[in-house]
Amino acid sequence: MKKFFADFKAFISRGNVLDMAVGVIIGGAFNAIVTALVNILLSVATWGVPGGLKGLITVLPAVNDVQKGAVGQTFQTSEIVAKTIEYAAGQGVTITKDSDTFIQWQNSLLTKYTLHGTTYAANTSAVIDWGAFINAIISFLIIAITLFVIIKVAMGMAKKREELKAKMAAEAYQAWAKAHPEEAKAKEEAEAKAKAEAEAAAAVVPATTDDVVKLLAEISAKLDNKKAE
Description:
It contains seven helices and five strands. By secondary structure, the protein is mainly alpha-helical. The chain has a domain at 61-125. The protein starts with a helix and ends with a helix. The mean pLDDT is 82.
Protein backbone atom coordinates (compact mmCIF):
# COMPACT_ATOMS: atom_id res chain seq x y z
CA MET A 1 0.00 0.00 0.00
CA LYS A 2 2.84 2.37 0.84
CA LYS A 3 4.48 1.61 -2.52
CA PHE A 4 1.18 2.30 -4.29
CA PHE A 5 0.81 5.75 -2.70
CA ALA A 6 4.51 6.48 -3.28
CA ASP A 7 4.14 5.62 -6.98
CA PHE A 8 0.95 7.68 -7.20
CA LYS A 9 2.65 10.66 -5.56
CA ALA A 10 5.57 10.36 -7.98
CA PHE A 11 3.12 10.17 -10.88
CA ILE A 12 1.11 13.27 -10.00
CA SER A 13 4.29 15.17 -9.14
CA ARG A 14 5.79 14.72 -12.59
CA GLY A 15 6.20 17.94 -14.50
CA ASN A 16 4.35 16.80 -17.62
CA VAL A 17 1.30 15.73 -15.57
CA LEU A 18 1.10 19.14 -13.90
CA ASP A 19 1.57 20.86 -17.26
CA MET A 20 -1.22 18.72 -18.71
CA ALA A 21 -3.55 19.62 -15.83
CA VAL A 22 -2.85 23.33 -16.32
CA GLY A 23 -3.39 22.90 -20.06
CA VAL A 24 -6.76 21.21 -19.52
CA ILE A 25 -7.95 23.99 -17.20
CA ILE A 26 -6.79 26.75 -19.55
CA GLY A 27 -8.23 24.85 -22.52
CA GLY A 28 -11.63 24.69 -20.82
CA ALA A 29 -11.58 28.41 -20.11
CA PHE A 30 -10.42 29.15 -23.65
CA ASN A 31 -13.21 26.99 -25.06
CA ALA A 32 -15.76 29.13 -23.20
CA ILE A 33 -14.22 32.27 -24.73
CA VAL A 34 -14.28 30.76 -28.23
CA THR A 35 -17.90 29.64 -27.81
CA ALA A 36 -18.96 33.11 -26.71
CA LEU A 37 -17.07 34.72 -29.60
CA VAL A 38 -18.60 32.34 -32.15
CA ASN A 39 -22.08 32.97 -30.81
CA ILE A 40 -21.56 36.73 -31.09
CA LEU A 41 -20.24 36.50 -34.65
CA LEU A 42 -22.97 34.14 -35.81
CA SER A 43 -25.67 36.14 -34.07
CA VAL A 44 -24.60 39.18 -36.08
CA ALA A 45 -24.26 37.13 -39.30
CA THR A 46 -27.73 35.58 -38.87
CA TRP A 47 -29.43 38.76 -37.71
CA GLY A 48 -32.26 38.38 -40.22
CA VAL A 49 -32.95 34.70 -39.47
CA PRO A 50 -35.95 34.17 -37.14
CA GLY A 51 -34.54 32.87 -33.87
CA GLY A 52 -30.97 33.61 -34.94
CA LEU A 53 -28.43 30.83 -35.22
CA LYS A 54 -30.55 28.37 -33.24
CA GLY A 55 -33.35 28.81 -35.76
CA LEU A 56 -31.27 27.33 -38.60
CA ILE A 57 -32.83 23.88 -38.62
CA THR A 58 -34.42 21.49 -41.09
CA VAL A 59 -37.17 19.17 -39.86
CA LEU A 60 -37.37 16.05 -42.01
CA PRO A 61 -40.86 14.92 -43.07
CA ALA A 62 -42.62 12.52 -40.70
CA VAL A 63 -42.63 8.89 -41.75
CA ASN A 64 -45.05 7.69 -39.05
CA ASP A 65 -47.73 9.04 -36.72
CA VAL A 66 -45.33 9.28 -33.78
CA GLN A 67 -43.09 11.76 -35.60
CA LYS A 68 -46.06 13.96 -36.49
CA GLY A 69 -46.19 15.27 -32.92
CA ALA A 70 -49.13 16.10 -30.67
CA VAL A 71 -50.17 19.22 -32.64
CA GLY A 72 -47.93 18.92 -35.71
CA GLN A 73 -44.22 18.48 -36.27
CA THR A 74 -43.46 22.17 -35.79
CA PHE A 75 -45.10 25.40 -34.76
CA GLN A 76 -43.94 28.93 -34.02
CA THR A 77 -43.72 30.60 -30.62
CA SER A 78 -46.49 32.97 -31.73
CA GLU A 79 -48.81 29.95 -32.06
CA ILE A 80 -48.31 28.65 -28.54
CA VAL A 81 -51.76 29.73 -27.31
CA ALA A 82 -53.64 28.20 -30.22
CA LYS A 83 -51.57 25.01 -30.10
CA THR A 84 -52.16 24.65 -26.35
CA ILE A 85 -55.94 24.94 -26.83
CA GLU A 86 -55.72 22.46 -29.73
CA TYR A 87 -53.69 20.03 -27.62
CA ALA A 88 -56.19 20.16 -24.76
CA ALA A 89 -59.07 19.68 -27.20
CA GLY A 90 -57.32 16.58 -28.52
CA GLN A 91 -57.46 15.21 -24.98
CA GLY A 92 -61.19 15.97 -24.76
CA VAL A 93 -60.80 19.14 -22.67
CA THR A 94 -62.05 22.57 -23.70
CA ILE A 95 -60.00 25.50 -22.39
CA THR A 96 -59.36 29.15 -23.18
CA LYS A 97 -56.36 31.40 -22.68
CA ASP A 98 -57.83 32.59 -19.39
CA SER A 99 -58.56 29.11 -18.05
CA ASP A 100 -57.06 28.16 -14.71
CA THR A 101 -55.50 25.06 -16.25
CA PHE A 102 -54.10 26.77 -19.35
CA ILE A 103 -50.53 27.00 -18.01
CA GLN A 104 -50.60 23.34 -17.00
CA TRP A 105 -51.71 22.26 -20.48
CA GLN A 106 -49.10 24.55 -22.06
CA ASN A 107 -46.30 23.10 -19.94
CA SER A 108 -47.49 19.59 -20.75
CA LEU A 109 -47.41 20.41 -24.47
CA LEU A 110 -43.95 21.95 -24.35
CA THR A 111 -42.46 18.82 -22.77
CA LYS A 112 -43.14 17.11 -26.10
CA TYR A 113 -41.31 19.78 -28.15
CA THR A 114 -37.86 21.37 -28.32
CA LEU A 115 -37.42 25.08 -29.00
CA HIS A 116 -35.05 25.99 -31.86
CA GLY A 117 -34.93 29.77 -32.13
CA THR A 118 -38.59 30.65 -32.58
CA THR A 119 -39.62 27.19 -33.80
CA TYR A 120 -40.86 24.33 -31.65
CA ALA A 121 -40.06 20.91 -33.15
CA ALA A 122 -41.50 17.64 -31.91
CA ASN A 123 -39.00 15.63 -29.87
CA THR A 124 -39.81 12.58 -31.98
CA SER A 125 -38.97 14.34 -35.25
CA ALA A 126 -35.68 14.04 -37.12
CA VAL A 127 -34.07 17.49 -36.96
CA ILE A 128 -30.94 18.67 -38.78
CA ASP A 129 -29.42 21.41 -36.64
CA TRP A 130 -27.46 23.51 -39.15
CA GLY A 131 -26.74 26.14 -36.52
CA ALA A 132 -24.90 23.69 -34.27
CA PHE A 133 -22.99 22.35 -37.28
CA ILE A 134 -21.88 25.81 -38.40
CA ASN A 135 -21.00 26.69 -34.82
CA ALA A 136 -18.78 23.60 -34.51
CA ILE A 137 -16.97 24.35 -37.79
CA ILE A 138 -16.23 27.98 -36.92
CA SER A 139 -15.18 27.01 -33.37
CA PHE A 140 -12.78 24.44 -34.81
CA LEU A 141 -11.27 26.96 -37.23
CA ILE A 142 -10.80 29.59 -34.51
CA ILE A 143 -9.20 27.08 -32.13
CA ALA A 144 -6.97 25.66 -34.90
CA ILE A 145 -5.76 29.13 -35.96
CA THR A 146 -5.17 30.15 -32.35
CA LEU A 147 -3.17 27.00 -31.58
CA PHE A 148 -1.18 27.43 -34.80
CA VAL A 149 -0.23 30.99 -33.83
CA ILE A 150 0.65 29.97 -30.26
CA ILE A 151 2.82 27.05 -31.42
CA LYS A 152 4.51 29.18 -34.07
CA VAL A 153 5.31 31.90 -31.54
CA ALA A 154 6.52 29.34 -28.99
CA MET A 155 8.77 27.64 -31.57
CA GLY A 156 10.15 31.03 -32.63
CA MET A 157 10.92 31.93 -29.04
CA ALA A 158 12.58 28.54 -28.46
CA LYS A 159 14.72 29.03 -31.57
CA LYS A 160 15.75 32.52 -30.45
CA ARG A 161 16.58 31.16 -27.00
CA GLU A 162 18.80 28.41 -28.47
CA GLU A 163 20.53 30.92 -30.74
CA LEU A 164 21.15 33.21 -27.76
CA LYS A 165 22.54 30.31 -25.71
CA ALA A 166 24.83 29.29 -28.58
CA LYS A 167 26.02 32.89 -28.98
CA MET A 168 26.71 33.24 -25.25
CA ALA A 169 28.57 29.90 -25.23
CA ALA A 170 30.69 30.99 -28.20
CA GLU A 171 31.52 34.33 -26.55
CA ALA A 172 32.39 32.55 -23.29
CA TYR A 173 34.67 30.12 -25.16
CA GLN A 174 36.40 32.93 -27.02
CA ALA A 175 37.05 34.72 -23.73
CA TRP A 176 38.40 31.49 -22.18
CA ALA A 177 40.54 30.74 -25.25
CA LYS A 178 42.00 34.23 -25.13
CA ALA A 179 42.91 33.78 -21.47
CA HIS A 180 44.24 30.21 -21.98
CA PRO A 181 45.69 30.06 -25.53
CA GLU A 182 47.73 26.87 -25.05
CA GLU A 183 44.86 24.88 -23.56
CA ALA A 184 42.51 26.16 -26.25
CA LYS A 185 44.96 25.12 -28.98
CA ALA A 186 45.32 21.63 -27.48
CA LYS A 187 41.55 21.28 -27.21
CA GLU A 188 41.01 22.36 -30.82
CA GLU A 189 43.67 19.90 -32.03
CA ALA A 190 42.08 17.07 -30.04
CA GLU A 191 38.64 17.91 -31.44
CA ALA A 192 40.05 18.08 -34.98
CA LYS A 193 41.75 14.68 -34.53
CA ALA A 194 38.56 13.12 -33.13
CA LYS A 195 36.57 14.53 -36.04
CA ALA A 196 39.06 13.17 -38.57
CA GLU A 197 38.97 9.72 -36.96
CA ALA A 198 35.16 9.74 -36.98
CA GLU A 199 35.10 10.72 -40.65
CA ALA A 200 37.64 8.01 -41.49
CA ALA A 201 35.60 5.41 -39.62
CA ALA A 202 32.46 6.51 -41.40
CA ALA A 203 34.24 6.27 -44.76
CA VAL A 204 35.08 2.58 -44.23
CA VAL A 205 32.65 0.53 -46.28
CA PRO A 206 31.44 -2.48 -44.30
CA ALA A 207 31.92 -5.84 -45.93
CA THR A 208 28.86 -7.29 -47.60
CA THR A 209 27.70 -10.89 -47.41
CA ASP A 210 29.10 -11.56 -50.90
CA ASP A 211 32.54 -10.28 -49.84
CA VAL A 212 32.56 -12.57 -46.80
CA VAL A 213 31.55 -15.59 -48.89
CA LYS A 214 34.22 -14.78 -51.47
CA LEU A 215 36.89 -14.43 -48.78
CA LEU A 216 35.91 -17.75 -47.20
CA ALA A 217 36.04 -19.43 -50.60
CA GLU A 218 39.54 -18.10 -51.20
CA ILE A 219 40.71 -19.31 -47.77
CA SER A 220 39.17 -22.74 -48.39
CA ALA A 221 40.90 -22.98 -51.79
CA LYS A 222 44.27 -22.08 -50.30
CA LEU A 223 43.81 -24.71 -47.57
CA ASP A 224 42.95 -27.33 -50.17
CA ASN A 225 46.06 -26.47 -52.23
CA LYS A 226 48.19 -26.67 -49.11
CA LYS A 227 46.83 -30.14 -48.30
CA ALA A 228 47.49 -31.29 -51.87
CA GLU A 229 51.12 -30.22 -51.62
